[in-house]
Amino acid sequence: MAGVIRHRFFWPVATLLILLVSNLFFSPDFFAVEVRQGHLYGSLIDIVRFGAPLILVSLGMTLVIATGGIDLSVGSVVAICGALACLRISGLGDQNSVLGVLLAVGLALGLALLLGAWNGLLVAQAGIQPIIATLILMVAGRGLAQLITDGQIITINSSPYKLIGGGYWLTVPFSILVALVVFGFALLLTRRTALGLLIESVGGNAEASRLAGIHSRRIIFTGYVFCGLCAGIAGLMISSNVSSADGNNAGLWIELDAILAVVIGGTSLAGGRFSLGGTVLGALIIQTLTTTIYSIGIPPETTLLFKALVVTLVCLLQSRAFRAKVFHRRPMPPPAQPDRQQEPKVEVPA
Amino acid sequence: MATVGEPAPILTMTGISKQFPGVKALDGVDFRLFTGEVHALMGENGAGKSTLIKVLTGVYDVDEGDIVVDGTPVCFAGPLQAQQAGVSTVYQEVNLCANLSVAENIHIGREPRRFGAIRWGEMRRRSRRLLDGLGLDIDVSAPLGTHSLAVQQMVAIARAIDISAKVLILDEPTSSLDASEVDQLFRVMRQLKEEGMAILFVTHFLDQVYEVSDRMTVLRNGRRVGEYATRDLSQLDLVSAMIGKELAVLEELEEQPRRSLATLERDRPVVEAADLGRKGAVAPFSLTIHRGEVVGLAGLLGSGRTEVARLLFGADRADHGQLRVDGEPISLRGPRAAMSHDIAFCSENRRTEGLVADLTVRENIILAVQAARGWSRPLPRRRQDELVDRYVQALRIVPANPEALVGQLSGGNQQKVLLARWLITEPRLLILDEPTRGIDVGAKAEIQRLVVTLSDGGMAVLFISAELEEVLRLSHKIAVLRDRRMVDELANDDEVTAERIMSIIASGNGAAPSEDGPPPSDPDMVVIRKEV
């Protein structure tokens, strides 16, 4: 039992379960999943489906944070990519042309890679602090998205494009599949190769890594490019789901949710060790929370406050110092240390 | 103030035990400290010295045992509480803020204020007075980081005693100081002792223990071996108490034969630096290192020893001269380029430039090999385990658990992990920058022996150390640095003594000492501009 509690996923999983179960009081059929007209339906499915963009953005954010950085520009990248894809599609003679849609998607993702590379260059080559470097694109990117959409909301009517965020494939929502594939790809990329180790090393101690022969700059650059790509895919999903591009509001504040998801998932903002699985859990917690707020009918003007309360609670539960203070009867709680100790303290029998 | 030998100690620890997962770090340890004494805490790496100090200062909490300070049983929740109770600690690695001024560092958290506003003038005045008392005349408004490590250490001590400490703990305070700075520190320690301070002193330098301490407590494997008056315990007895081995074994360690160039067959040099230099770091120097040769670098701290190593490894880029490997001119764009020529570099500063504390022993050991293979070709796990197991055993890394986080290991074991990282790259030139600093006698001897074995096997070694005896014992050839210039190069034989090297360091051997930056290079020399 102690082993289960000490597992790094214990608190995130517990939080998620509590959130899900508490929904039962408000809608008894919350856990019901059924196949309707060949499509999977149910509240659980919806959570994953609407959470897919956040999962994607958070995965990218995880790698960036693991290198010791942060990417504030993901929201803007979401807006830009959605805008560019919709602009291209709206200019097509036949909006249902698969080839045309593929081209638009390719173009948008290409731009996402470029934007990620821009962030990577600023951070890794120019040596600008990540929070400042990505703040540039966060602000300028909104303007860029406005330019692309000409300040309007571009509405399209394209069934191939609709598939990305709102369609189904083999009864499963397509966006869930995309998120799964990206998750699997990221896992393979970081854990089946040495990339994960190198990222953790660079994030843990950049100078020591350089002296061990690691091309720290390349690793950091790669992280931002991957993050840009993930944000780009998320942008396509979001605009596809509503068949329109809104340069102003698409992906607004998603960077904050993503950073939260990463932290809840157990990756330290200081860089170093990261956990992609934890990040997915974190993103699901945040999405469940959003869904719960809607389903239990919390007044809209208090939703943000409620969300903040729950997030604070989750973070407190994960804090070792807090848990020691609250749950331990021992006279002297362990002091705040520079941390990273594998807590010899918790398992001391009372 | 009480005098030595009075019955009531200022600090008593009885039956202290501390358990970590898998390790009993302390096992029923007793410890006493009196006012007006310098008490040395001795023991090998992992003997429990650091743990005892951390238990005392509340960094760790105690599993069993009692701590009594000044007649009151205490249980500190952290260093801050300990400090408030009069127990201050100065750590080996200076724990101050390099970007704040000296005065700010001394007064941080307790600045003199008037109406809530900090009185900067008063703060500087107080700091100056305090440092004057320690015989230190420095600019207190300059950022701490602009001063040498020794000065930073003094500032840390000044801060500690200014918080009206009754007990001052100095954890390896001398490991980064040169001889004159150590003297300065000892003068301060004696002065504080006279004033009635109880000083707990941890060091690996035996000479220093005998120079400054009154009594000592020896720990081994988490247990107390004994408490001795320093004058009653000979150096050899002390060492055998620390490592628990027979004296004969120790003497054998000490008596490695002097090595000289005559015993070495010299063929083409592995690495040849011709007039290599970097503005502001080290003046152009020439140095050749052959297969199987150990070249020692001697010189004071800051004399340019590390800078020479960094140029040879490409950690900094040379802006002058030429480097040849196997006779081929090369230019090093970075560490990776040096690694591709089989050059390895164990840096002096393990914590900031060596290990990644967050990663495991295994991951740290394979890091360099993995970096050379690139991210797309991971070292197979079975091969990793094989390599890591072999070196954990060969270097006797404790705990012998490859999945332990490196940050939890003791200094000597961290050093071994760093060594292992580079040994598995099978280098032809191994650069060791202060590999034995801050580690105990046993581990030191092991590393010295390793250097001999490696060079006998054909590896070229550049050995940097502040301890001249060590350099003399291991090197075939010794280069001496002074004021960021290489001033002399000697073939090692019986006529070379520590005194002679010291006089070269002191006099500069006729070369004009330069105050700032490298002087213009010798006009008679052909200067080969570095081609990129």
UniProtKB/TrEMBL annotation, chain A:
Annotated region described as Disordered, given as residue ranges: 328-350
Domain of life: Bacteria
Basic and acidic residues bias spans: 340-350
Subcellular location: Cell membrane
Keyword Membrane attached: yes
InterPro entries, per database record: ABC_transp_permease
Location, primary (coarse class): membrane
The name this protein goes by in its record: ABC transporter permease
Species of origin: Plantactinospora alkalitolerans
